[in-house]
Amino acid sequence: MKVPSLIAPRSNIMSTAKVKHIILVLSGKGGVGKSSVTTQLALCLSLAGHSVGILDADLTGPNIPRMLAIEEAKVRQAPGGWLPVPVHDADPDTGKASLRAMSLGFMLRDRGDAVVWRGPKKTAMIRQFLSDVLWGETDYLLIDSPPGTSDEHISLAETLAQNALPGQVAGAVVVTTPQAMSTQDVRKELNFCTATGIKVLGVVENMSGFVCENCADCMDLFGSGGGKETAEAFNVPFLGSVPIDPQFGELVESGRRPRYPAGTVANGQDIGVNGNGEASTTESGAEEEGRNPALLAERYKDCYLYHVLKPITEKVIENVEAGVR
Predict the structure, then answer these.
(1) Would you say 212 is a known binding-site residue?
(2) What family name appears in the similarity comment (predicted)?
(3) Residue 1 within any structural domain of the chain
């Protein structure tokens, strides 16, 4: 599968000069929900008033466009580079900041196309993403990295080390699941961070529990605690545990606003339909339906996982700012 280069890459130049903080989101293996965590961190940061960009560096599995309901978008060229695809604009009335994304998925002729590239081609694409995407003024750039420690990781680490501004690379958020196999693999990822000098902002244990759609319980399916134990073993922060919530999946896939039965409590807040979780409506009084990237962040605020990811995001911000001081 051949993806045409829209413009010639500018070697040894990064287009992230106006980005304040760069955060890599890593995982030791696939299937742990790394892209889901990246998406939710971005939504939480945006809702907290921070402008955000997502660079989807998972070249063979670019899921970010689908997660953000912008998979039909196309990348536009401007003088000097590529323009990232907007998810939503800033809203001064609500305090929400802008969110944009760049992914190889926007350049594929068909979403089913396989990206069959050897290491050098992947390395060149990563460097072009870092040199040619015009982010502009951005508070946080999240780089959704492929699983493992592959050529893409080495290219990312080397390019950022050589060309990023001093202190610009804030560090990495490492995603794992509770199972022993995942925590073993994430140890390799943490060792990779040590070897490349990337600070670990913290570990997130994803898929830790299951939010029942029909009752108010969060059930433990795959065990828990593996992520925290791994973080403690490496003396890095543990950011928190994130359960599986089918309603987040429905929000992403169909745009349906999450609604929970009475008595559902997330992080100490009643989000059930008879609590504080009454679904929002449009000005006309009717709930809009369907996938709409402009409404994704507002609908996400009604999701159980928003109340879980919000304090995790606050810890990430705190750890980033602590490194800056």
Answers:
(1) yes
(2) Belongs to the Mrp/NBP35 ATP-binding proteins family. NUBP2/CFD1 subfamily.
(3) no
In a domain, 71, yes or no: yes
Torsion sign over Cα 51, 249, 70, 104 = positive
Judge whether 313 lies within some domain. no
Q: Which two tokens stand for residue 182?
A: 């995942």
Backbone phi and psi for residue 105, each to the nearest 5 degrees, phi listed first: -60, -30
Annotated binding residue 74: no
Residue 20, annotated as binding a ligand = no
pTM: 0.90
Collapsing DSSP to helix, strand or coil, 314 comes out as helix
- The total number of structural domains that make up the chain: 1
Sequential pLDDT tens for the chain (325 residues): 444 444 444 445 678 999 999 999 999 888 899 999 999 999 999 999 999 999 999 888 899 999 999 999 989 999 989 999 999 999 999 999 999 999 998 987 766 666 767 778 888 889 999 999 999 999 999 999 988 877 788 889 999 999 999 999 999 999 998 887 777 888 989 999 999 999 999 999 999 888 877 776 777 766 678 889 999 999 999 999 999 999 999 999 999 999 999 888 888 888 887 555 454 444 434 556 799 999 999 999 999 999 999 999 999 999 999 876 5
66 falls within a domain: yes
226 marked as binding residue = no
Asked whether residue 28 is marked as a ligand-binding residue, the answer is yes
* β-strands 81-83, 169-176 pairing: unpaired
Let me know the angle formed at the C-alpha of 160 by 69 and 117, rounded to the nearest 5 degrees: 60
Residue 193 labelled as part of a binding site: no
- Read off the CATH number of the domain in which 144 is found: 3.40.50.300
To the question of whether residue 31 is assigned a binding role by annotation, the answer is yes
Contact yes or no for 57/152 (Cβ under 8 A) = yes
Domain interval for residue 207? 19-245
